[in-house]
Design a protein that fits this description.
By secondary structure, this protein is an alpha+beta fold. It is built from seven helices and six strands, in the order H-H-H-E-E-H-H-E-E-H-E-E-H. Strand 5 and strand 6 form a beta hairpin.
Length: about 150
């Protein structure tokens, strides 16, 4: 996947998490307002690749079914708010959330106290997770992506 497509899809996840989007045209217009030139067909492909679903006529990430299985409130926070999980180097993960959610997600990670996590730094919509080694990076990445339903 190209870096541009990945960035666009991250923006789509942010848009559907922060405002009601009912149609592909609305999504294309919202992307246009954010500086992205898109066609209806590229928006349609992105929606399919991201697995977006309509809930009460509004596009959303398909988290509702997974949340039934998530009983820990801190893991629930992660499942509800994480948009992406990406490795960086051998001992770092970069997480993206909707704007304003990173602090809450970072706090939830800290409260989970997973021993492989050495520390977290959270901004507005991005979290850096330092882990103890490359194996821990893979394990924590899988655990987080499983909460997202992407692993």
């Amino acid at each position: 996947m190209s870096l541009d497509r990945k960035k666009r899809q991250l923006k789509i996840l942010e848009l559907v998490a922060t405002r009601p989007i009912r149609t592909q045209d609305e999504l294309a217009d919202a992307l246009g307002q954010e500086g992205w030139e898109v066609t209806q067909s590229s928006v349609s492909r992105d929606i399919s690749q991201l697995g977006l679903v309509k809930v009460d006529g509004i596009y959303a990430r398909p988290v509702a079914a997974r949340l039934v299985e998530v009983t820990d409130p801190n893991e629930r926070r992660l499942a509800e708010s994480l948009l992406t999980v990406d490795p960086a180097g051998d001992a770092l993960l970069v997480l993206h959330t909707p704007p304003g959610e990173a602090q809450r997600v970072g706090n939830a990670l800290d409260l989970l106290a997973w021993p492989e996590i050495v520390g977290t730094i959270a901004g507005d919509d991005t979290i850096f997770i330092a882990v103890s080694n490359a194996a821990a990076q893979v394990m924590i990445g899988r655990r987080l992506r499983s909460l997202l339903g992407t692993e």
